[in-house]
Amino acid sequence: MFWGLIMEANKRYTQVVDKPFHISHAAMDTATGDNEPCQVMVVVDNKNFLVCTLQKNKTVQMPLDLYFKTGENISFLTNGKCNIHLTGYVDPEFDDEDGEEEAEEEEEVEEEEKPVPTKNKRKLEAAKAGKKGGS
């Protein structure tokens, strides 16, 4: 499932993670700000981490590989005059609990419906015929 956050300039976004998610990309909204660099910061355990620096006419997008797990208290913020779009996805294993149950049920059904291979079926029929004839 898609995850995204549009961060406005110089604002802080804080949350306690309820479903694990991955941030894959940061992109600058070039319609905002000026030619000065914009820093994307992540705060984890009360420590500020610079994730990337974006600037018009230089680097307006940056691939990321950030994973946040359930229960983490995190914040995102920008330093600069531009809006930044963070995009990624919710961890598929935690995306839809009902979907997981359905997938497990489908696996069980598939196991029950496995056809008997032809070779074994012929051997089984021959063995049954031998038992009937010998009785």
Automatic annotation (TrEMBL):
Superkingdom, natural source: Eukaryota
Region (Disordered) location: 89-135
InterPro entries for this protein: NPL
Nucleoplasmin-like domain span: 2-90
Segments of skewed composition (Acidic residues): 92-113
Residues of the signal peptide: none
This protein's name: Nucleoplasmin-like domain-containing protein
Organism: Leptidea sinapis
Record lineage: Eukaryota, Metazoa, Ecdysozoa, Arthropoda, Hexapoda
